[in-house]
Structure prediction request, 653 residues.
Amino acid sequence: MITKLLMYISKIKIEKAFLKLMATCAVGMLLNIMGIIIVKEFQLPIYLDTIGTIFIAALGGYAPGIAAGFLTNFIGSFFDSEESYYGMVSILLAITTAFLAGKGYYEKFPKVLWTIPLSVFVTIFSGTFIEEMLSFSLSLDITHDFLEHFYEEFPDKSLSILLSFFILKFIPPDIKKRFKLLGKMQAPVSKEMLTAIKKTNNFTLSLRTKMLSSLMAITLFVAAFISFISYRIYHDSMVEDRKKIADGIVSMAVNEIDPKRIDEFLEKGYQAEGYFDVEKRLYKIRASNSDVKFLYVYKIMEDGCHVVFDLDTATVKASEPGDIETFDESFEEYLPDLLAGKPIKPIENDDKYGYLLTIYKPVYNSVGQCVAYAGIDFSMDIINNYGRMFITKVIATFSGLVILIFVFVLMLVENNIILPVNTMAYCARNFAYDSETARAQNIEYMRRLDIKTRDEIENLYSAFLKTTSDSMHYFENLKRSKIQLAVMEELAHKDALTGLKNKTAYNEYTAKFDADIVEGRANFAIIMIDVNFLKKVNDTYGHEYGNIYLINAGKLACSVFGEDKVYRIGGDEFVVVLDGEALARCEEDVFAIRSMITKLQHDSTLQPWEKVSAAIGVAYYQAGVDKTAEEVFKRADADMYKNKLAMKATRKD
Prediction:
């Protein structure tokens, strides 16, 4: 099913490259989701949530692999919010897989085994790091966590990689080749051209570098700015929440203090009646929240803070009632208000006791006079811990998104701008003017670039192609002396009776296949068509009708294969040469012409010279077997002869 789906996607045209890319990403996500469902359904001790990421990265490269992995985690975040933070792990796995696949590690089984430990290491290292940063307190035993994840990830990644490898083996090589061209907005470019372009483009700062540097700078600035603003909003919100909690606790302490007895408690301390009861209730209030570090009641006077109540902690011995505590430096600006008995705003302080929030709340008597302050030192360390977790989540999410955007823009810039411009420049720089054939080949080569960016680049390409083509037409018109020669040359390549290309044209066209065979890039087929019963038609109805019979045979062949593919190389012999896209339809077309011949033979409304009969033989070029196109022709001729014998064996007249 996956193979058929990929074959369908691979046939999407160049101008719909974005659709092909999105469809490929969707296949990767589908495989990831299928893996998750299978694991949950059978309760397997693995994940299989990255099998699609690995498969698509190995098949289509960085962009679809990264997109499949990141978007799978993004969708998963709707069901588990922490999934989005692990998108970076999937991205790093996709990058690793695409890199190794590009180096050929997914082509042979022994080599693919080497990808397992590296993929496992990348997954565990990045995953463990994110987990540690997301945890409330950092683990002191990283090695233990690493090994624990190893026992989980190794079988999972091994199975995912091996399954991807074997699925890839079932995909035809031509389909794989098409997926290597994902995102391309023009026809494939040879390695020789790419090498020549790289050697020519020796700019200090290329257009690619300028655009991508600008994009990266802007993206990072926006990400950093949004992260900073998000963190400030989060931090301020957390602080306000802590202030409300601390204020509520200190208010409870104020309610336990009798303003009338402040001076008595201050003077007599533990000897005062009810002092221990109040102190006990204050201990309960402090114990109600583990973040309350210190709870005390002071009477603020000119010489310092006079201790009314001060509670012991596990590490700090409390001051005795009546002791005087000196003013902390952080309170200097608030002293006038404290001495006047006014409320002061909460104070944040980071000292030897940690990050604390201090709140002083006045204790008023019946006439509204402040007689003391209940104070609380509230731990704010949780804000730092949660802040680290929050910024980790933001960075994990943004970094994955930044990489995804960067890779897609890189592909967009490369395929929509850089590659088309460079290939046009290469064609213009290497345009040959020395012969008509060379000029025609150059124009055809430019036309075969088939740039389909649907934007200004395509307009530039069209203008470039038109200008070059028009220039060549103008150049040819200046050479009127060659017009007659060109006409004669054309006639020399045409069959006078049928108007089709003749044996000379056939020999010239197939000569290029000999060069292709030597270079190892030949791919063609030759179809031999030998007309039956020509002599019988000539003898019975005359040569005029024999000629009509041959013309009808040529028309029949052209109707199936196309006039540009058919040659008349002898009296009753026609040859069809198929290469390029037409080669894929060879069997279908041969079946079609044979069916048409059979139909003509049984049509009683036709004249004898209209009932075209012919024996047909087919031969495909076989690499390592055929040394020349002539050898392929001979096999086609032999196959035709077998067909002719069979047809003669079934004749009834």
Observations:
- The two ends are 51 Å apart (CA to CA).
